[in-house]
Amino acid sequence: MSKTTTPAPPSEGEPIIKVFDLHKSFGETKVLNGISLDIRKGEVVVVLGPSGSGKSTLLRCLNRLEQPTSGKIIFEGQDICAAKTDVNDVRKRMGMVFQQFNLFPHLDAVHNVMLAQEKVLKRPRAEARRIALKELERVGLAERSDYYPDELSGGQQQRVAIARALSMEPHVMLFDEATSALDPELVRGVLDVMRELAQGGMTMVVVTHEMSFARDVADRVIFMEGGVVVEDGAPEQLFEHPKSERTRAFIGQVTG
Amino acid sequence: MRTLPKRAAVALSLALACLASCCVWLALPPQAAEAMQVVRCTGRPNSDDDPTAIQGATQSRITLETTVDEGEGVDQLVVHVPDGTSFGTDDLNVTLLTGDDLMTRNEVAYDLSTDGQDIIFDFDAPLSQAGHLNIIIYDVYFPQEGGDMQVGATYTLADGSEHEIDGIPQITVVGITGPEALSQWLEQQEWVQAWNSNTFLHLFLDPTVLVTSFPVVLNGFFMSVGVVALAFPLGIPLALVLALMRLSKFFLWRGIATTYVNLMRGTPLFLQIYVAFFGLPLAGIQIPNFPLGVIVLMLNSGAYMCEIFRAGIQSINKGQTEAARSLGMNGFQTMLFVIFPQMFRNVIPNLTNEFITLYKDSSLLAAVGVMELVMYARTIVASTGSITPYIVAALFYLVITLPLSRITRVLEDRLRGHRRSKRHAHAPEAAGAEKEVAAR
Questions:
Q1: Which residue on chain A is closest to B339 by alpha carbon?
Q2: How close, in Å, is residue A168 to chain B by CA atoms?
Q3: CB within 8 Å: B327 and A165
Q4: Distance of alpha carbon B275 from the chain centroid
Q5: In this structure, what DSSP letter does residue B32 have?
Q6: What is the pLDDT of residues A34-51, one digit of tens each?
Q7: B123 phi, psi to nearest 5 deg
Q8: Which residue, A9, A173, A174, is CA-closest to A78?
Q9: Residues B169, B40: contact at Cβ < 8 Å?
Q10: Distance of CA B145 to CAs A72, A136, B83, B142, B178, Å?
Q11: Domains and CATH numbers, chain B
């Protein structure tokens, strides 16, 4: 536990994550080619881009599920790539939701949400359960708390996964195509939870293909292609008056 | 045919009886009050196998020979068969031996009745000829547990006076075990005799050997199960460590584990047993047979289970690790709380198969003298010449392996299919609830 190295979350509007010239290669393949961006506290940033543009890799670098090849990521004043940084300490302040949910199939919903609370935050079992039930309630699944993942629909599983991440009381939530694996009729429930979360002031970085969500909820939209940020701006500007030709083409493609 | 020796034995015993009676004759002048004196009282098995040993629960005969005085007029004789001994009266032989050499056999006419353990002989004509009264009760089963059996006898004279015959010697009966009794009983059965007349059945499935070898081979069964019940659980932690080493990023761990697994899986267990049991003593390391057997089996199955665990861990979706790590769990916690529980559930069928294999392979320990199933069976095979004990040993393997492979199959089916849950009926409802949320 490195409490001293854990700074207080920055106040509203301050950058909580700063990315400097981030590069990532898988062998010969360059996926990220120098990304620099700031994410401010309370901001909802939606990352758009065609597949293979490096959106997911960027997200996974933010909590070091991928090791950046070069560049720097400062999270709450701390260089997360530094050798002395306790990456587990960083990750417990950064929730992540995956495309494939990745619930633990051997645990029911409430225990999925309790596990990391008990093992990482060392919360007593009763408190972990209380918080787990509260978070399940928040995603509308209180009555499904004793269901196993394979007894839940995809949308319900993803909401449990969100509750699981939220139970750690993260300062930032990362959503990696959270609705892409869902049947269309189940997408809405997950997006509603995400929207409520955004309205509650959570800092969110969202990789998605849901244009309506980007338009309605995002404070800022980043368009990526070929491992670089092509355009970065408010949703209205990006959707209505894109500066870049590539952005215009992409928006036209997915909305048209 | 072995009736000839039997006859010879009878003749011999009769001759002996004559000698003995002559002695008695000379030693004891007849007295009216003790007209009947015991000459001998013996028990003999009816079978020809071993006429000297009298065993419990074996068809035997009791021979009671007493003197009869001239003019005494024995009216009735009551023979008390020892308590706990069962008998039948269909096959009796009552003879009065007379003459100087007691070689004249006189049939005696009598009415027979029984009262509990008493056999009552009412003689049609009172016995008044001097001689020896010889009574043989052929259908007698002494108690299985054996012991000293006391035959009693009282007689009634023509004048109505009752007298007891004193000094009847006890018959010492050797106790036998239940299976031995069962075996001997079986031996008498016609269907068993018919069964055993077939050479093949007699050699491989002799019922009489089957029942006697069962309790002996049972000892070996406990031993075999004991070896495996220790070796298998001990092999699991070894296998887990090996599996983690094989999955390690550090080449040295990987190299050590891979070499070990390849060595153990690439050579016969038989060879490993030989090396351990003959090599270690030469190196001055003395380990008793049983623990050494456990160790060798543990080391061997550890290598096999390592591969089961490694495959099991690798089959878990990478997303599980990522999800656990993204929540801040370290590698150890992720392994312990997320990967292992799922892995174990998946590998249970393979582990059960490994257990079955190990249990069967424990028979190889017989080659180095560990007293396990096959070894026990072999000792009885050596003493009976029947292969039946090996068949009994086979049954003791099957009694474990068949149920376990059945369980394996059930588990595999369950893993392949969906979890059967009583909540499954709610699945459409769950989807419905989802739509409700979507409609909000």
A1: A104
A2: 7
A3: yes
A4: 34
A5: G
A6: 999 999 999 999 999 988
A7: -75, 135
A8: A9
A9: yes
A10: 91, 73, 13, 8, 9
A11: 32-173 (2.60.40.740), 207-439 (1.10.3720.10)
